[in-house]
Amino acid sequence: MPYKEREIEKKYFSIGEVATMFKVAPSLIRYWEGEFDIINPKKDKKGNRRFTKEDIEKIRYIYQLVKVKGFTLQGAQEVIKKEQNHVFDKAATIDKLHQIRKFLAEIRENIHVKSE
Question: Are 50 and 41 in contact (CB under 8 A)?
Answer without folding.
Answer: yes
